[in-house]
């Protein structure tokens, strides 16, 4: 249930955050530029109106979600820092200092599930609006990257041990009989599985792997016999059976039990041959530097991601870009709707003028500017490792990282403007002092 709105007209007896804080601070300026009423209007129908516990204010929850990706901290971290940072509190709509935590960290999880992908896309749209005319550039660059999931590097031995652990946990929870727990056996097999690259240990490690797989299959079959027909664990057992049946050359392999949608993606990197997660596509304005599109995919061919990405860009900005520069991974698409796709290729034909060839070369050189932007998204805005669950979590993390990048861009711009103002003021003050000294010496 939505809480009743508080009356903010009455001034505090001592002080308010609005009067105390530095009004030139970028976070202070951003809090006054964001259209918070838009979020209240769009997210209010998602709450019950007449029963239940009063919910936290929508501005508070949206502000915490933005600050989390803006500062690259966890749910627990942003909740703790909110109680210590006055600018965080003012950004989330607080008028007076509060020393207690605003909410429980798990409430952020529930809020993200409540608003879903459409709500997060609304936050991305607002971040584009904040950038003003810079987001209306008709020339864009598009590229894809891998958003890695928060899983360990998958190996068959790890997956089989997790199956054993899961089966034993289900048996303990449901109080089912198990003929053997294999605790001591697995400990001895773990010793044999070490140092498998040494020539003397290869055969011993291979035999230990096979034995662990046999134990995992034995426990799965035993659980199948003992569980009731309509048990909630049937889907988990089917997943375990799929992991046990897959081989090196199998398609649609499972790389994680808790994230079965994880894909194995190879982008041709020398230092990291395979990455486990999903594919993310970004649309970046070529001349102004605003992310106007961010979308998640599984492991599609890059050319097949162009059309939905451009549709999202048109939905967020209001118009489709005229030109989109891409790399050779998008081979096969020359035009989508009103957008012309520019692929780097040698100019062998005589139909293009030298001027047009020069413009195309400049466009492809500028396209490379999206690579460091993706690096900043991974290093500074939580795109490097995705902790959200499921396919919906993948898409939410991508859009929130892009929104945080756009907000950070404007904050840096305001910071530079403020520094320039004080620099000019200081130079004017120095000039006036110098001029007064000259006037005194003249007499």
Salient structural properties:
443 residues; alpha/beta; Nucleotidyltransferase, domain 5; 3 domains; 8-stranded mixed beta sheet; 8 strands
The Rg value, from CA coordinates, equals 28 Å
> Kindly state the mean pLDDT as a whole number?
90
Helix count, DSSP H or I runs of 4 or more residues:
15
Helical proportion?
40-55%
Q: Strand fraction band?
A: 5-15%
Low-confidence stretches: none
Overall shape: it is: globular
Count of discrete structural domains: 3
User: Quick one: biggest sheet?
Assistant: 8 strands, mixed
Q: Using DSSP, what is the number of strands?
A: 8
Oligomer: single chain
Through-space gap between termini? 77 Å
Per-chain topology:
Blueprint: H1 17-20, H2 26-33, H3 36-43, H4 58-71, H5 75-82, H6 86-91, H7 105-130, E1 139-149, H8 156-174, H9 183-192, H10 202-226, H11 234-245, E2 263-265, E3 275-285, E4 291-297, H12 306-317, E5 323-325, E6 335-336, E7 339-342, H13 354-367, H14 370-380, E8 385-386, H15 390-442
Parallel strand pairs: 1-5, 1-8, 5-7
Antiparallel strand pairs: 1-3, 2-3, 3-4, 6-7
Q: Can you walk through the features of this model?
A:
With 443 residues, this protein is α/β, with parallel strands linked by helices. The chain has three domains: 1-133 and 402-443, no CATH class; 137-152 and 263-387, 2-Layer Sandwich (Nucleotidyltransferase, domain 5); 156-245, no CATH class. Helix content is 52%, strand content 10%. The chain has 15 helices and eight strands. It has helices spanning 17-20, 26-33, 36-43, 58-71, 75-82, 86-91, 105-130, 156-174, 183-192, 202-226, 234-245, 306-317, 354-367, 370-380, 390-442; strands at 139-149, 263-265, 275-285, 291-297, 323-325, 335-336, 339-342, 385-386. Strands 1, 2, 3, 4, 5, 6, 7 and 8 form an eight-stranded mixed sheet that branches. β6 and β7 form a beta hairpin. The longest helix is centred in the C-terminal third of the chain and has 53 residues, at 390-442. The relative contact order is 0.12. One of its GO terms (biological process) is DNA transposition. InterPro entries: Transpos_IS5-like (IPR047710), Transposase_11 (IPR002559), Transposase_InsH_N (IPR008490). Residues 16-114 form the Transposase InsH N-terminal domain.
């Amino acid at each position: 249930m939505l809480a009743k709105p508080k009356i903010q007209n009455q001034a505090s007896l001592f002080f308010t955050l609005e009067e105390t804080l530095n009004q030139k601070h970028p976070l202070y300026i951003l809090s006054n530029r964001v259209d918070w009423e838009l979020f209240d209007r769009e997210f209010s129908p998602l709450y019950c109106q007449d029963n239940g516990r009063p919910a936290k204010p929508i501005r508070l929850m949206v502000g915490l979600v933005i600050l989390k990706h803006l500062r690259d901290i966890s749910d627990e971290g942003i909740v703790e820092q909110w109680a210590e940072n006055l600018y965080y509190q003012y950004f989330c709509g607080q008028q007076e200092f509060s020393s207690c935590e605003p909410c429980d960290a798990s409430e952020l999880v529930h809020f993200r599930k409540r608003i879903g992908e459409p709500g997060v896309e609304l936050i991305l749209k607002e971040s584009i609006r904040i950038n003003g005319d810079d987001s209306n550039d008709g020339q864009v660059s598009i590229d894809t990257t891998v958003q890695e999931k928060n899983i360990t590097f998958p190996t068959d031995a790890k997956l089989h041990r997790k199956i054993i652990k899961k089966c034993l946990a289900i048996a303990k929870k449901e109080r089912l009989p198990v003929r053997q727990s294999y605790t001591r056996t697995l400990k001895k097999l773990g010793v044999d599985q070490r140092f498998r690259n040494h020539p003397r240990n290869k055969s011993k490690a291979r035999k230990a792997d096979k034995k662990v797989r046999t134990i995992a299959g034995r426990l799965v079959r035993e659980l199948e016999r003992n569980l009731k027909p309509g048990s909630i664990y049937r889907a988990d057992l089917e997943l375990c059976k799929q992991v046990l049946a897959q081989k090196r050359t199998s398609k649609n392999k499972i790389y994680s039990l808790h994230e079965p949608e994880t894909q194995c993606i190879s982008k041709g990197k020398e230092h990291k041959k395979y990455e486990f997660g999903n594919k993310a596509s970004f649309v970046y304005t070529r001349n102004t530097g605003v992310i106007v599109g961010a979308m998640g995919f599984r492991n599609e061919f890059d050319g097949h991601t162009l059309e939905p990405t451009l549709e999202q860009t048109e939905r967020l900005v209001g118009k489709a870009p005229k030109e989109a520069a891409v790399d050779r991974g998008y081979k096969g698409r020359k035009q989508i709707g009103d957008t012309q796709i520019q692929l780097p290729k040698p100019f062998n034909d005589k139909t293009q003028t030298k001027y047009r060839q020069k413009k195309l070369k400049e466009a492809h050189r500028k396209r490379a500017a999206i690579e460091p932007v993706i690096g900043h998204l991974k290093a500074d805005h939580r795109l490097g490792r995705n902790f959200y669950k499921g396919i919906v979590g993948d898409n939410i993390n991508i859009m929130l990282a892009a929104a945080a990048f756009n907000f950070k861009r404007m904050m840096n711009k305001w910071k530079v403007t403020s520094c320039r103002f004080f620099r000019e003021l200081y130079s004017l003050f120095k000039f006036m002092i110098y001029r007064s000294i000259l006037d005194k010496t003249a007499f």
